[in-house]
Structures are given as C-alpha cells and as structure tokens.
Amino acid sequence: MDSPERGIRLADYEAVVGSAVLDELRVVASRVEGLRLQNINSTAVGGGVAEILTRMVPLLKELGVQASWDVIKGDQRFFDVTKALHNAMHGKAETITPQMIECYRDTTAANLRNMTFGGDVVWIHDPQPAGLIEAKKNGGKWVWRCHIDVSSPDARAWQFIAPFVDRYDASIFSMPDFAQRLSIPQFMVAPSIDPLSDKNRELDQGFIDSVLEKYGLDPERPVMTQISRFDRLKDPLGVIAAYRMVRKRHDCQLVLAGGDAPDDPEGAEVLKEVREAAGDDPDIHVLPLPPYSDLEINALVRGSTVVFQKSVKEGFGLTVSEALWKRKPVIGGAVGGIRLQIIHGVTGYLVHSPAGAAQRAMQLLGDPALRKRMGDSGYMHVKQNFLLTRHVKDYMLVLLALDHPGEDIVHLC
Amino acid sequence: MNYEPFHFHTERRLVELTGRTARTLAELRAAVGEISGACIFYHTHHLFLSHHFETPLVYNDFADWTGEALQEGALSEKLAAIDLMSFTSIRDLREAIMATIDEHLASSRGRPRECPPGDEFYFCKSKSFIMATGVVALDVADFFRKLAGVTNLSLYFHFLEARLRLERRTNDFSHWMRGRGETALADDIDSLDPYIVTLDELKQQILESGRAHGFA
Known about the structure:
The complex is a heterodimer. By secondary structure, chain A is an alpha/beta fold. Chain A contains 15 helices and 13 strands. Chain B has helices at residues 25-34, 37-50, 61-68, 73-80, 90-107, 140-147, 152-165, 172-179, 183-190, 199-212; strands spanning 6-22, 121-137. Chain B is elongated, with a radius of gyration of 19 Å. Chain B has a two-stranded antiparallel sheet. Chain B folds into 2 domains: 6-11 and 136-212, no CATH class; 12-124, no CATH class. Chains A and B meet through helix 2, strand 6, helix 14, helix 15 and strand 13 of A and strand 1, helix 2 and strand 2 of B.
C-alpha cells in the first residue's frame, strides 16, 4: 500500500477533527502570527521528537508562525554522554563522570559558536541541547521542552541539567508527574498521535485482512494484541500469562508485535524469553517487525478485538491512544501516561497484574456491546485530547503564555 | 432595559504545573489552604473539558485521589458531594473543601494513610485565555439561533468559568437575559445544573428552555 503521508496540509485534518477545531487553531494562531519560532533538537530523523517536529513545523508555518528547525551537531562521544544522561533522567543508574560533563560542555560551546539563534522564541527539545541557554543573552524567550519521563530522575543527572533549565523562561512536561521544583513556569502539554500518519489512518478492510493472513491470524476468531518493543517494562510475559488464563474460557489468539531492536542486547534477550514462554502454542504470534512497519502495525491493531499495553513502567505510552483511536478497548497497566489515556471502565481498564488483565479481557471478549461502547468512548477521548491538532494549539498557547507571566486569566479580547 | 448584544467568548486553557505534591491527607489539607484559586478551580473542573462525551463518576480530583490513592472512601464521597452549584466564589469552595477534610481528620483514628509511590497528588492550575469568537447575538431569538453553533469551550466559559472563577454569581446567559427583561427564562437557565450533565447535554437543556419560552 502506498503511503500518502507526504504533503499533508492543515485542511486535510478537517475531515478527521471537524472545522470547529481548525477554526479554533486559526483563532489562536491569529494571536501569534508572524512570530519567529526556532526549534532546536539533537536529531533530524528517528525518534519521537523528530517525528513530532516533522509534522508540527509545517502546520505551524501554515498557521502563520515562522517556525524553523535546527539540529545540534556532536560526535559519537557526545551522544554517548547524552544517552547516559537521558537514561539517568529516566531514573536509570548511570555514572556521569567529570569527563562526560566536560564533553557535554565542549560540544555545547562548539554549537554555540556555529549556530545562529534568531527566534523571537527559541524552543529547545530535551537535555541534549539544553546548554544552549547560554545564547539567551542574544535575546528572545527560551522554552525547554522535556519529552522524557523525569518523574524520578537520577539526582546527579538532574542537578546537572536543572541550572540550565532554571535559566529558561518556561518549561514544558508531558505529565503532572514529571513536574519539578523549578523557579520558572512549567506547562503540561501531552504528546499526541497524528491521525493521518500511516500508523493511524483509516485502512481498507482488504488490506487489514491481508496483513492478518500474512501473519497466520484467523480473522474469524478473537485477536488480543500488544504492540511494543520487547522490553521487560512492557511486561510481555505478563501478557502471555494473562492470555493463558483467558484461553481457559475463550477461544482467542495473541499477537505480541514490535521492533526487534537487533542492536539492543536486552531486547534480543527479552524476545528470546517471550518465544520460550510462547512455546509451541500456534495461537501466540510473536512478531518482531522491521522498521517502517507502520501500516502493518495499524492493520494488526485494527484487526484486533482487544488491545493490551500492560506496562509496569511507562513514559506516556502513545500506543494506547493509537489503539483507542481505532476504537479498540485497551487493557493497560496503571502506570505513567496510560492513566491519562485509559479512563477506567470508560475507554478500557487499568490493571495491576496478569490476573487483572485476564479478567478484564474475558469481560470484553464476552461482551461485544461493551467493546463497542468502550471503543467509541476511546475514539472520542483521543479525538478531544491526544491528536496532533491539540498539540499544535497547546504549543501556540505556550507562545502566548510567555507574554503573560503570572496571569491565571488572560483576556485577549 | 439593556439592549447590548451578547458577544460569545471562548476559553483556551493551558495546564500549568506547580511542582507541589501531596502524599497524605495532611499534606493535601495544607496545600488546599495555600494553593491559588486557579489550582482549586482546575482540580474541581478540568474533567468537564477532558471528556465531556461521558459523565465521569467523580469530577473532583480531591475526591478521586482520596478515594483511589488513600482509600479514604467516606471522605472521598463527602468531597464528591460538595455541591459546586452552591458556590459563587472559589474562596467559599476552598473553605468547604478544607472544612470537609478537617472534619474527617478530627474524627479519624489510627495511623494516617500515605499513598503508594507514584500515586501522589500533583497540583496543577489552569491558565485561561479568554477570546471573542466573533459570534454576536443581537436579541434573545438571535441568541438561541447562534447558541446551537457555539462550541462547548464557549459554553464552558460562559456557564462555569464566568460564574465561579470570575465570580459573576450567575451564568453569563442568564445575566444578559435578565437585562433584556426575560427574567423567567433567565431563572430557568440559571437553575440548570451543569455539574450533572455533559456540556452537550447542557447545551440541549438551554435550547429547550428557550423553546419553552417561545424562542425556537
């Protein structure tokens, strides 16, 4: 199936979100029109931030914001340092040595010399370019957008980053749990999914059936699916345990699909454990999918009856919104951003154990009307809260907020 | 008699994080006494806009958290039962929340409960941007024609935000209609409880009130 993603324009979203949402975007945009917004991150391709900016920058431009996007440069050593820093901000124990800090400062200094900072607002994404705040003396408002889970950061890593962050005009986090003790305003902007991307757009039933057939799934029997990396934090073994409990009562199939991450030794190890746990059960389909499998992932979710995201720790877990958008009830671990996306008993169920997941799956498999009701509610919940158009609006509101510090109610009439 | 047209406004809301958290009821109580009015308003109202397609079991975050995270079921029910319609200022609402928690603390025995790690209460607040929509009703009949097309955000602003957070004591629609001499209609609309229906349902109820008074 050909990808129609390129050349997507704002008007294309009208069919999905309605004209009122686009009108609302234009109303807000009229207040920030002409503003120069310079985004800076650490990579042009790969990863969630680049994916968001690829879609966000053209839409902001179409709305009249002079949005641009620059990428810092660094050698392998720098990115090893920032990867360790990133992991430590996530709470993983990492050793941050003085040499690593020196490398970070040297690379930041080189970027400060080589880059041009010309925005009315400079929007810095994540810790890698955070040190560029040194250029704030040249003017403009500076915003630090943190895309990662910093609910329990390694203290030393946070102590290194916090002095930079405190010099910004504002910061943005994805969840209330990620808020920090800072002297600057902290806004919450949840991430989003793009309803027109290959991973989320509508598909022909024929294509969905062909993908199910390709992977040996029977479309006539219920399919339970978890889409995620093979990572212990996503609890794939817990999902298999839940499936085995469900199988005692319901005929069903299980799909565990995600990137096989060949360069990640732990990922390969977990995949091996998952395959061992699946054993020779022909109804458990372990599918390590190659990169660029978005259309197939879309089809697998659309062909599913129930979707799991049984994580035991999660940053935001947008796979939940991706499934809800396809009107699938989701059974998710009661952790991180999953708790914002699953309204317990309304768009799915929050669970704490394989037994809980199994019990809810049985309830859903046995009640088509409940699945339909939850699926419809999930679709509405995502439509109102987790689509790219809301994300764009929130970013423009942050731009507005920078001119009204300390005001809880801003009259723009 | 006031013959000013009605200008529909709308609200865009940004969530601001305070960085303040609570793990126990005592910490929640202390914070409720100190946080801004914008914080109190956020935690008692944000769910109206988050998923107005479904009436949540509990709108009030304080009730939800004390029930779920602290397992204080009785207190949760009392907090949920605080009638938001009976308040026309955040100050009074704050007092009611504090009094409810104080009463519970005074009567409870045993070791205070602490929430599980990760289930802390995170205090947020609304930063609201009020803008004109450009939609203007010239008279009451025109108002009901235009109302059908306004967004839920506009309805939320004029019915909930204006009444409580801006302390106008009534909703903007009723206030304007009284000025137009439509006192009975204004009273009917003022008696609608926006806290027990979705915003879509509220709009239908307002339109029905208009029809009952001859404004189809």
